[in-house]
Write a structure and sequence with these properties.
9 helices; mainly alpha; 213 residues; 65% helix; Secreted protein
Length: 213
C-alpha cells in the first residue's frame, strides 16, 4: 500500500508546484513517506479519480443546494481560509494529532495564497480530488466504483447542507463541506489519525495545482 501512496503523492504534485516533504513548513506535519529523489513507475493517469471528479461535478451542476454550497464567489480566498480553518483544526484535535495547530495552518496556507477568484467548479474539483486521491491511495477507489463513490460524497454534502441550512446556521455551507467530507471518508473506513497527514498533503497540493493551472 505504501507504493500506492508514493504514486499518489507524485501524481498530486507533478503537475503543479511541488510541496517538498522535507520543507520546514511541512516537516513537522507530513511524515516522510518517500525519498524525494526516488521516482518510481506510476500510471499515466488516474482514470478512477477523473471519473470520480466528473461525476461529482455533474451532481454539483444539477443540484440546487450543492450549487449553493460551493458558491463562495462573494468572498476572497483569504476569507475562505479563515472560515474553513476552525473546522480543519477541530478535526485534527479530534484525532489528537501532536501538531494539530501547525498541521491545520498548513492546510489553509495555500488557500490564502490562491490568487484567483473562487468559483464553484474549482472548489468542487479540489474537494472531489482530495477525497478521491486519498481513497485511491488507500485501495478503496477504482474505476468500477468511482461513480458510486462520487454520488455518495455528493449525497453526504447535500444531506448535511439541508440539515444545517434548515437549522438557520449562518455558516451552513462551510459546515456542510467539512461534515460531508468527514462522513464520506468515515463511510470508506479511511478517516483516521494515521491518514490525516496524507489528507493534509493532498488538500494543500490541490490548491497549489489550482493556482498554477
Amino acid at each position: 500500500m505504501q507504493i500506492i501512496e508514493i504514486v499518489l503523492i507524485l501524481l498530486s504534485v507533478l503537475q503543479g508546484t511541488r510541496v517538498s516533504l522535507a520543507s520546514s513548513h511541512y516537516s513537522q506535519v507530513i511524515p516522510i513517506l518517500i525519498d524525494d529523489t526516488l521516482v518510481p513507475d506510476y500510471p499515466a493517469d488516474l482514470s478512477s479519480v477523473a471519473l470520480f471528479e466528473a461525476t461529482f461535478q455533474e451532481e454539483v451542476r444539477t443540484c440546487r443546494i450543492l450549487r449553493e454550497v460551493f458558491d463562495f464567489s462573494d468572498i476572497n480566498p483569504a476569507e475562505f481560509s479563515k472560515r474553513v480553518y476552525p473546522y480543519i483544526l477541530s478535526t485534527h484535535k479530534k484525532f489528537k494529532l501532536l501538531n494539530a495547530l501547525q498541521a491545520s495552518q498548513s492546510c489553509v496556507y495555500h488557500i490564502a495564497k490562491y490568487q484567483k477568484k473562487l468559483n464553484r467548479s474549482i472548489l468542487a474539483r479540489i474537494y472531489a480530488n482530495t477525497v478521491s486521491k486519498l481513497a485511491f491511495a488507500k485501495g478503496v477507489l477504482d474505476e468500477e466504483n468511482a461513480e458510486d463513490l462520487a454520488l455518495s460524497f455528493a449525497s453526504f454534502i447535500r444531506e448535511n447542507a439541508r440539515r444545517f441550512k434548515k437549522a438557520g446556521d449562518q455558516d451552513w455551507k462551510i459546515k456542510s463541506l467539512a461534515q460531508g467530507l468527514e462522513d464520506f471518508l468515515r463511510s470508506c473506513n479511511i478517516l483516521s489519525r494515521k491518514n490525516i497527514p496524507l489528507l493534509d498533503l493532498v488538500f494543500a497540493n490541490e490548491w497549489i495545482e489550482a493556482g498554477s493551472s
